[in-house]
Structure formats: C-alpha cells, structure tokens
Amino acid sequence: MKKLAKIAAFLLLVIFLANIVSCSANRACRGMEYYNSDRKRGLAH
Description:
96% of the residues lie in helices and 0% in strands. It is mainly α and 45 residues long. The model has no long low-confidence stretch (mean pLDDT 83).
C-alpha cells in the first residue's frame, strides 16, 4: 500500500509539473503571436 501511495504522489507531481510547463509554453507562444501581430499592425500603418 505504501508503494502505491508513493506512485500516486509521484504521478500527481509529474502531472502538476507537466501542467506548469505546458501553461508557460502556451503563454510564450501567445506572447509571440501578440508580438508578431503588433509588428504587422505597425508595418500596416
């Protein structure tokens, strides 16, 4: 039972970290999109 609890805790930690990584990656991608669209808008004017 203790081993199962350790595995469950480990899985939760991995999922938690994966969520943080994917969230920060999404934010970076979104930031690049905003940056590119701002540049295009600047060139359009």
